[in-house]
Amino acid sequence: MPRQRMSVLSLMRAVAACGMMLAAMTSEASVQTLVGVTGVGLAIWLVELGTGRIPESEDDALRGRGVVALALGALLIAEAAGFAISVSQSDHNLSLFYGLAVILQLAALITTSRCGPDDMSLVAWGSCHAAIALSAILILLTAAALAIGGNESQIPFAIMLILGLFTTLSVIFVACSFLLLMAALALGLLMEPERRRRAWTSLILLQAAILLVFLRWPWAER
Predict the structure, then answer these.
(1) What confidence tens digit (pLDDT) does each residue in 171-218 have?
(2) Which conformational region is residue 155 in: left (phi greater than 0), alpha (psi within -120 to 50 degrees), or beta?
(3) Which of 94, 150, 158, 172 is deepest in the core (most CB within 10 A)?
(4) Per-residue pLDDT tens for 90-129?
């Protein structure tokens, strides 16, 4: 009976995950879609966090998890700063983008306290949020330059060009990280059941779905 109950629960999670990705791919890129995708994804994550089996190797990985948590915390600070500056500038697009990044990073920290990520998940997640944090730092630097210079015409062209170039590159890196997330998701699903980190797999899935919506986001129209 317990095994049958778990099978039904697993089937429900799989259906919810497929529905979430389908909505991210086919629904209009809107706030409503992001709210729905994020809500379903976080619900799946909470279920996996509470019921997922922790690999036995985690007993010997506390120090490594501490390092991961510190790195995630540093990225969280940068993303929170990006959220704060975008709110202060009334940029609703970036506020939404960085706000969701902060929520997911908090979820990642909670997950790390229970179970560290596998290597591929760490690379994919770290790359994605490092690119997001870099874009936030560049936005902060641009805002600081404008505050000091007064307006763009009083700031050396080379400085604005470098900031613009690195901002563009960080956006490209965020988009490319989608491929890493999908690779980490595939490897996580192919792992032996006793080695799977289901909570991390659900977070990777949610992050990929949110990026998919933002990749189709009509930035210029909002």
Answers:
(1) 788 778 888 999 988 888 777 766 778 889 999 999 999 998 988 887
(2) beta
(3) 94
(4) 888 889 999 999 999 999 999 998 888 888 899 999 999 9
Instruction: Pull the structure tokens for residue 207.
Output: 């992050």
Which class for 175: exposed (0-12), middle (13-18), buried (19 or more C-beta within 10 A)? Answer: middle
- Record the pTM: 0.83
118/200 Cα distance (integer angstroms)? 8
